[in-house]
Amino acid sequence: MSTSPRIATGVPGLDAILEGGLAPGSVYMLIGRPGVGKTILANQLCYHQATHGRRAVFFTLLTESHAGMLAHLRRMTFFTEAVVGDSMVYFSGYKVLEDAGLAGLARLVGKAMTDRSPSLVVIDGFGAVSAAAEDGNETKQLVRQLQAFSASVGCATVLISCAGADLVQPEHTIVDGVIELSQDLNGQRTLRHLQVRKLRGGRPITGRHTVEITDAGLAVHPRFEADLENRDPSERPRPMPRVRHGDARVCFGIPGLDAMMRGGPVVASTTMLLGCSGAGKTTLALSFLAAGAAAGEPGLFFGMYEQPEDLIDKCGRLGIPLQAGIDAGKIEMLWERPIEGVLDVLADRLLAHIRRLGVKRLVIDGMHSLFRTVDFPDRMRAVSAALAEALTAFGVTTVYTLEAPDILHAGSLRVPISDLSAICQNLIAVRMVDRGDQVDRVLTVLKMRDSDHDRSVREMMITDHGIVIGSRARLHRRGRGRE
Questions:
Q1: What is the SS3 assignment for 18-86?
Q2: b/e for 261-278, b at 16 or more Cβ within 10 A?
Q3: Cα(250)–Cα(288) distance, rounded to whole angstroms?
Q4: Quick one: pLDDT band at residue 474, thresholds 50, 70, 90?
Q5: CA-to-CA distance for 104 and 169, rounded, in angstroms?
Q6: Contacts from 238-244 at CB under 8 Å and sequence distance 24+?
Q7: Contact yes or no for 219/212 (Cβ under 8 A)
C-alpha cells in the first residue's frame, strides 16, 4: 500500500471512518445486497474526483446501459454532466468479459488506467467476474493484476459486488479493504448502515455506522460513542478547564429552585428533570433557557414532540421571557420528528448547532424519545455517556427531561432507564400528588453530585408569572410507597 496521501472520498463522515480516505495503489471491495446504495456511493466517489481536478473511470459489467444509469443519477446534486466523457468516463466491460474472459477484462482495465491516469477506478458488477471465472484462483489472479495496475498508476480501485458479509468470496482475502453497506427494517423504519469489514494497514472506526441517502448522495454518521479524536479537528470539542464544584453556577431563574440547588447547577454539568406527563418538566427547562438568555448565554432547545410555536405561546401566557431571548438571537428552537430520526444523525446535528451558535445552555426535551431513535438498544448507555462527555467538553450546561410512569403517587418514582449516573450529575423529580380534593405538584432535588443541596419536598406552582417554588410539602404514605 502506498504511503502517499489518501484519496478523499468526498462522502460526509466516510473519510473519518477510513482514516482519511482511500489509499492509492489499493483495491477495495464494496459489498451489499441489491438496493443498499452501492452504485450511488461509487458514482459519488467518482464525481468528487472528477470535479476536484482529478479523473475517474467507471466500468460496468452489468446489462444496464450507461444511459439508464445516468438517468437515475441526474437527480443527485453531485452529478455534474459537464465532466462526463472528460474527467469522468464510463466503460462497458460486459461484452469483453463475455467474449475474452478475465484476461480480456484485465487488458481493458489496464489500458484505461494507463491512458487516463485516474485517481479512482470503479468496477461495478464484480459478481459477473466470479461467474465467468473457472475457479476462485482465477478471480484472485485478476485482483492481483488490478492491484499491480493501481500501484503503477497511483489510483484506488473499488470493486462492487452484490454479496453480504455472510457470503465470503475468495477475492475478499486478496483485496486491501472490504466495506459493507446494509439495510434493515426496524419496525416501520428503514435503517441503513456502513461497516468496514477489513482495512489492511489501517485502523478504521469499527462497528456499524448510520447511513443517510438523500438527493445529495450518501452521508455516513460514525458511531457517536466512538472516540471523538477520530473526528475532523474542526468537529472536536475543545477540553474545558475543570471547574471546582461550587465555584461557578448557572441559575434556573426560579428563586426557590436556585436556593435549593445552592445557586443552581454547576457549569457544564447535566441535570435530569424527571416526572410524569404534565408535571411541568418542559416549563422548568424553558425557564432555564430564558434565564440564560437574560444573562447573555446562548441557548438551544432540542425537542421531538411539542412544536416550537406552541412552546413560545405557552411561555408567553406564563410570563416566561422565551420570546425575548429568541428575538435577541440568544435562543434557538430545534425540532425533529420523533418517528424519523436516527440517533447518530440527531447527535451530529445537535453538536453542529452547538458549535455554530456557541451554545452555553442546552435543553433536550423528551429523553425517552431520543432513546427510541437508537438502532441497537444496547448502545444507549454508551451513546448517552459520550454525549454527556462531549457537552461537558464544550462547556455546555445541559438539562434533559425524562418522563416517568408514575402519575399520582406520593411514594418512590420508578425511573424508566438504568444507570442515570452515566447521563447526569443532578436529578430533580417533579411529581403530581393526589390530595383528595385536588392534584398538586411537588418538586425534590434528589441528587447533586459533590454538592450540598436542599433535599426537602417543596410545593411547585405554575402561575401567570412563571414557576413558583413554595413551602415544604407534606406527603402521605400510600400502600408500601415511601415518603
A1: CCCCECCCCEEEEECCCCCCHHHHHHHHHHHHHCCCCCEEEEECCCCCHHHHHHHHCCCCCCCHHHECC
A2: bbbbbbbbbbbbbbbbee
A3: 9
A4: confident
A5: 22
A6: 238/393, 238/394, 239/393, 240/268, 240/392, 240/393, 240/394, 240/395, 243/267, 243/268
A7: yes
Is residue 394 helix, strand or coil? coil
Q: Say how far apart CA 84 and CA 68 lie, in whole Å.
A: 14
Sheet containing strand 299-303, edge to edge, reads 331-335, 299-303, 361-365, 397-403, 270-275, 426-434, 439-448, 457-463, 466-472
Task: Identify the band that residue 234 occupies on the pLDDT scale cut at 50, 70 and 90.
Answer: low
- Report the relative pairing of strands 439-448 and 426-434 from DSSP bridges: antiparallel
Q: Is 146 helix (H, G, I), strand (E, B) or coil?
A: helix
C-alpha grid cell for residue 219? 452521508
What is the gyration radius of the CA atoms in the chain, in angstroms?
28
Encode 79-105: b = buried (16+ Cβ within 10 Å), e = exposed: beeebbeebbbbbbbbebbeeebbeeb
Residues 6+ apart with CB under 8 A from 412: 481, 482
The pLDDT, as a whole number, for residue 354 is: 94
CA distance 7 to 53: 12
User: What cell numbers appear for 454 in the block?
Assistant: 436542599
d(CA 401, CA 424): 11
What number of CA atoms fall less than 13 Å from residue 42's CA on the CB side? 31
Instruction: pLDDT band for 382, please (50, 70, 90 cuts).
Output: confident
Cβ within 8 Å of residue 362, ≥6 positions away: 299, 300, 302, 354, 391, 396, 397, 398, 399
> What is the residue-wise DSSP string for 214-237?
ETTEEEEE--TTS-GGGS-GGGSP
Residue type (1 letter), 81? E
Q: How far apart are CA 21 and CA 5, in angstroms?
A: 9
Q: Measure the CA–CA gap between 112 and 83, rounded to whole angstroms.
A: 17
pLDDT one-digit tens code per residue, 188-231:
678 899 999 999 988 899 999 999 999 999 999 998 887 555 55
Q: Which residue has the cell 407534606?
A: 474
Instruction: Tell me which H or E stretch contains 150.
Output: helix 136-153
Contact 177, 196 (CB under 8 A): yes
Cα-based distances in Å from 289 to 152, 250, 414: 59, 11, 27
Taking residue 388's Cβ as centre, other Cβ atoms within 10 Å add up to: 19
pTM of the model: 0.80
What's the rounded mean pLDDT across residues 164-182?
A: 83
Per-residue pLDDT, 240 = 43
- The Cα 443–Cα 256 span in angstroms is 11
